[in-house]
Amino acid sequence: MKSAVETLNPTRVKLTVDVTAEELKPSLDKAYKTIGEQVQIPGFRKGKVPAKLIEQRFGRAAVVQEAVNEALPELYTNAIVENDIKPLGQPEVDITDFPLEEGQGLTFTAEVDVRPEIKLPAFDTLEVEVDPIEVSDADLDERITELRERFGTLKGVERKAKKGDFVSIDLSATIDGNEIDSVSGVSYEIGSGTMLEGLDKALTGLKAGEETTFTSPLAGGEHEGQDAECTVKIESVKERELPELDDEFAQLASSFDTLDELKADLRSEVERTKRFEQGVQARDKVLDALLEAIDIPVPDGVVNEEVHNHLEGENRLDDDEHRAEVTESTRKQVATQLLLDEIVETQEIQVGQEELIEYLIMSAQQYGMDPNTFAQALDAQGQVPAIMGEVARRKALATVLESAKVKDTAGNVVDLNEAVDTGDDEADADEKPAEEKPVKKAAAKKSTAKKAAAKDGDEKPAKKAAAKKSTAKKAAAKDGDEKPAKKAAAKKSTAKKTATKKAADDK
């Protein structure tokens, strides 16, 4: 097989592949056998029909079509390997010479988006400035208030409801006089904003036994987004009483004996949180500095496909203003991923089993799933390679962070490799019910750089770019879906629609 590559632009190439009749013969023989096993011809057993008879009955074109369908994915894969091409997405294949005559070979072309060449700078030349770590009394007071609220008690009151009160409510919604939904005895904190738009305002100023109506767009169901007339009645009003701030409270809320000890520990927690936030800020600024320093060509086809999928999912294909916003963020996401993939390759970054398991557990918790069930679902969907790629990119970003020069605005050098607590104590305490006493844990150690690079929600495993099929290239698609190992589409774009919200906002 002979193949040649034509560079159409920095992110797209055109492959021309010539296959001789001799090289195509095994696929033709297999095609005769396949068709022979599918048809019933009097006088012949299935699979024993002579090739000449198959050609007479069905025509050589049908046999060749079957042969090309079977051979094309592997021929394409061999060509990209031979020419060291790093594809992004599915190829657009056109068959230019179809072997209808005996002894004739096959010629096809394949256009595909590819990873551009990226020249990386020395990471130790990168310099960024971040905010200093400052723990104020206001920060400490906020943390203490949060802790007191977790251990507060609810007490019924005979007065108008206000922000921060807990109310038991009956709520119903109607559209054009027809009741859409209703709930009774629901507990709600005024000001939390976790239910209908306008509910907080409607409840404020009401007493137990009083009701009011307001108009609000519904947040879910078949009538999502439609304005409904909502009626809410307060059954009871309760306020939260906070415990006294003394040594007894310290013993209730922690393993410490005195309030001073508790405050000292909370101040340390605030400092750890701010150190982590400082690491995240450094990560974002270093990444932006890299993107500004390097001209990264981004494949338009990959961006357009991602944008279309995103807008289609939101049913906003005709929203030009939103399309422009999504296109801009997607272009940056694709550039970021191409950059990190280049770092992975040049730094020869590998992903260990423990790192993969850690990521799977973290992601499973995000989705509220059992880690084993989550891992099995990813494996069934063929997403494990994408997950490993994501972990590798995070390691690549951590590598850059560890080499870059980071200073705070006061001119102090920030050591992102300093081992600090992960802040797990704080995260766990947030999830504990008020009646439980937090238990202090041994703090895990991890570099700030690695923690910042691995922050949840930054990048999600990406949706794969959809295959583009022309009439002439349907042969490439027919068998490709059944042969993952030989699939004509190698790497897909992993630009996230967001993915997660953080992926679009942070990067």
From TrEMBL:
It catalyses: [protein]-peptidylproline (omega=180) = [protein]-peptidylproline (omega=0). Gene3D superfamilies: 3.10.50.40, Trigger factor ribosome-binding domain, Trigger factor, C-terminal domain. PANTHER family: TRIGGER FACTOR CHAPERONE AND PEPTIDYL-PROLYL CIS/TRANS ISOMERASE, TRIGGER FACTOR-LIKE PROTEIN TIG, CHLOROPLASTIC. Its EC number is 5.2.1.8. Residues 430-439, 453-462, 476-485 have a biased composition (Basic and acidic residues). It is an enzyme of class 5 (isomerase). This is Trigger factor. It is found in: Cytoplasm. Residues 164-217 form the PPIase FKBP-type domain. Involved in protein export. Acts as a chaperone by maintaining the newly synthesized protein in an open conformation. Functions as a peptidyl-prolyl cis-trans isomerase.
